[in-house]
Design goal:
The structure is a homodimer of 319-residue chains. Chain A is α/β, with parallel strands linked by helices and 319 residues long. Chain A folds into two domains: 133 residues, 2-Layer Sandwich (Nucleotidyltransferase, domain 5); 173 residues, 2-Layer Sandwich (Nucleotidyltransferase, domain 5). Helices cover 37% and strands 23% of the residues of chain A. The first copy, chain A, has ten helices and 13 strands. The model of chain A has no long low-confidence stretch (mean pLDDT 97). The interface between A and B is large, with 46 and 47 residues.
């Protein structure tokens, strides 16, 4: 009897779920509203039901789903299956694993959402052929997931791998964590938007005004679109953004020397427009040389499925 | 028959060697001049002879030394036993392990000197009770060794763990690696000396002039001595130095979340004068809180023996 694993990707708006086989193929997936204002027990019940529904719709027999993994925002105590806190869902010390487990009668494990996405990309996405990789999501914040020797690295009490909260410019931009000058402050989409707006205010003639319409409408694409339209200020915004991104990436390469850096998150939709200059900025500065121990810099390939694939993978590895 | 391991700590001036038992006790140790201007074969022969002499002086029988480990400066290809390059000994692609091994008929393994010291401190020094630790040497440069789940982490082709080459102040002080603003530029004894001299030039009245005698005579102790003498400029130098050190330490905690940060190198001789304010600056900024996953910040305890103990430990683990 072929075995399958369920992956659940818990977000502030939706819970995405999927059933994944041992080769990393998603046999079925769906999503339900999180309803995050409800007590966690109700959400856990919905998550358990989602797994049951998906298994039944995929025609699986009792016992074919061998385990369940959850990717969740926030600080996760993986060992005890507890969400220590999550700003996103406003939870504190929620024993989610146990709550889902008792409703399903299946082993349930959990990690944070960036770790889950990293596991997914490593298992069946852009990181597949690499023994070690650092996954970096460039979204509202900068999340990270570190895979060393094929395994997820989480640190003491799963509080490590917070690569976004590495100061790269002491005394620089305020970060949500309270420090100043974190990698996240510059390399997130939020940081890119801030830089874009600052440039627009300084360059009233910039094409970015036409592209975005207003400062409020600026998004992570505005500067890239401006650059493509030949706007000099926009090009400078993109250059500076990529330079800061490179600074953090070089740091992470010198620290972890992974075989690959896998970039995910919204900004990555730019593909080679982002990656080609990033590689150029990173390559000369790798400790020991890029020839000695080359590091691939690639875009994530699973998109929104990375989290549920990785959550399923987590369950697979913990079986 | 009790087993022992030989550790060799290769430096630019001396090769230190020791025989270590499985409990981490050094049964005998000695040092010989490196003679680094000679061909590597001659140095390898001396290293092999040092192991033989130590074993014989310790009264060990043939076969009681089960393996040899080497800690060496430079970039090390641990898998192939090759020193890829070392500024210190001016070597490039030197297959040192093989050269020592063929003269001894014993398995020989190698890692870089900071890694060896980290292993030593973890095996029988200040890091003994911790499952994971980041070792940071504050010397001419900033070296590092990372122990995760009880094992040395070296990264792809052993080129990782270069924590000194993490930029913490973009565009800041020049680093020997070519980048600007690396942790090493600020947190090394060299960085402390630079900061001390700059302050002396700006404060002609400072007690540091009397303490050091001249700018040339400034060392890593000058500012600490000045602070103890009540000098305000010296106190500011120490404060700033520790603030930069803290910035890098917080980064490393957020990235690795080790159970301990172990500090070695010359500057550490200051003990609690350095450590107490460092803990105070680090503690509020640990991701997820210092209570949730506490990180001990302690001084290394093995001094100059860390390297040879760790080199012996490396041999023990690779047996």
């Amino acid at each position: 009897m072929k075995k399958y694993y369920a992956g659940l990707d818990l977000g502030g708006t939706f819970v995405k779920g999927g059933i994944v086989d041992e080769q990393g193929r998603i046999v079925i997936k769906d999503k339900i509203p999180t309803g995050r204002e409800r007590p966690y027990g109700a959400i856990a019940a919905d998550m358990a039901q989602l797994v049951k529904d998906l298994a039944s719709r995929a025609g699986l027999q009792e016992g074919q789903v061998a385990g369940v993994g959850i990717g969740s925002p926030g600080l996760i105590d993986a060992e005890h299956g507890v969400i220590v806190y999550s700003n996103n869902i406003r939870w504190e010390n929620v024993p989610l694993c146990g709550a889902v487990q008792e409703r399903l009668g299946l082993p349930v494990c959990i990690t944070n959402d960036a770790n889950a996405a990293a596991l997914g990309e490593h298992f069946c996405g852009a990181g597949k052929q690499f023994g070690s990789m650092v996954f970096i999501t460039l979204g509202t914040g900068v999340g990270g997931g570190v895979i060393l020797n094929g395994e997820l690295f989480e640190g003491f009490r799963s509080a490590g791998g917070e690569i976004g909260h590495m100061v790269i410019e002491r005394g620089g931009w305020d970060c949500t964590c309270g420090r100043k000058g974190c990698f996240e402050a510059y390399a997130s989409a939020t940081g890119l938007i801030r830089r874009t707006r600052e440039s627009m205010v300084a360059h009233k003639e910039s094409a970015m005004w036409k592209i975005a319409g207003s400062l409020e409408n600026v998004d992570g694409k505005t500067a890239f679109d401006g650059m493509r339209a030949g706007d000099a200020a926009a090009k400078q915004v993109v250059d500076e953004y990529i330079s800061y991104l490179a600074e953090g990436v070089i740091n992470l390469v010198n620290i972890f020397r992974p075989e690959a850096i896998v970039l995910g998150g919204g900004v990555c939709a730019e593909g080679e427009t982002l990656l080609a200059p990033l590689r150029e900025k990173v390559s000369p500065w790798l400790f020991g040389g890029a020839d000695y121990a080359p590091v691939a810099i690639v875009a994530a390939s699973l998109g929104n499925d990375a989290g549920l694939c990785g959550a399923a993978r987590l369950a697979m590895c913990r079986k």
